[in-house]
Design goal:
The protein has about 210 residues and is of the alpha/beta class. The chain contains five helices and nine strands, in the order H-H-E-E-H-E-H-E-E-H-E-E-E-E. The strands form two sheets. A six-stranded mixed beta sheet has the order 1-2-3-4-6-5. The protein has a three-stranded antiparallel beta sheet with strand order 7-8-9, with no helix packed on it.
Amino acid sequence: HAPSSLVIPGNHDIPLLDIFTRLFDPYKKYRRYFGDDLEPVFETPELLVIGIKTTRWYRHVDGEVSDAQIERVAARLKRAGKSRLRIVVTHQPVHVTQASDEKNLLIRHAEAMRAWSTAGVDLVLGGHIHRPFFAPMHEQVAGISGRVWAVQAGTAVSSRVRFEAGNSVNIIRYPVDRPRNCMLERWDYDPEVNAFCLAESVQAQA
């Protein structure tokens, strides 16, 4: 049932210097390669994954989520039912672990997280800051309902790594009969063995 890919635009998908395209067709090149759906959704009987376009043509780096997006995602999460693993994907993070990354937080992330957690979201996946981590939002943020994890991706295969983090990928494993009882894994690249090796795992019991 796994999709080959679910892709959402990041801030680098909007042209910086081509002002005409930025104003009138900011996702022109993105759509050429990934299609017209900027907020894709993937569903199976066990899984719901909702992609959200958090980039904006009038912002260079910062991302935001609108009232309409918050409400639409919350409604979709509620319709999914409690048995499925429910995931939301944003580009900018809804949570950070370093003070230096606070400027990169998704604008209106707090409102979004309160609404989506009430609606039943289990995981919120993000990128942008290239710093991989898993964070239990229900333990760290006031007003979060249920158990919700922020799952941040690092740099997968690019040589443009950031900070102290090297290349890494995250894997989410879930049993078909209890998909919300999922395992979060971070695999870091080890140049000595030329392979990705398991570096961290967390049981995200829902």
